[in-house]
Amino acid sequence: MNIGFHREFEAFDEFPIGQKILDKERFLVLLEQAIRKHDSSGDENPGFMIVRMDDEAKTIVSSGWGHRSANPEDYILREHCGRVGVYLRREKAVEAEFVDVRVFEIATYVLCSDAKDAKFVAELDRLTKNGVTHVVTGISTSTEETLRRRCTPYFFLSMLALYLNACPEDVLGLAKLIFEEDKAWSSVADPLPLEVKELEKPKNAED
Q1: Residue 119 pLDDT > 90, yes or no?
Q2: Which of 10, 45, 88, 198 is least surrounded, with the fewest CB atoms within 10 Å of its CB?
């Protein structure tokens, strides 16, 4: 088995926003074990599985969410998708409830992707050259009703017009829910390393 990852899978990054895999080597060992033990007879779509990892995975995967606080020192500034936002520090993340991994077998992944997309073509070339048999597209660490909010208010507003055309009565309830969740929850992130340089004094400066 050779496991690869979707090009936008960021949990392996050194300084991600949101979920983070803290021990990459151990994660891959546990994931391969989970895939081999997975019973595919109950999968709705052959070739795609949601794999529940052993509880040990909860200790090496940061959930990506934490409770908001009133202490400014608990937060950092990060740029994400062209916008600067405020995020809780990584150590403020709550423990994951579980770790579910979304996995495609490579043949199914090819069929479910856009063959005309240049980014996908480049990604597929990378995966096939590396002999990848399974592709990870994402992980979940909680249900929507417990540890994490459904989406940010910014994202909700961007989708509001689509919802209004379909079911305006559902939008009102969802808007209230997202507002309350945004007051209570925040994404967590890692601070980026800063290169600090000592400023040289002018030669004529006084001590």
Answers
A1: no
A2: 198
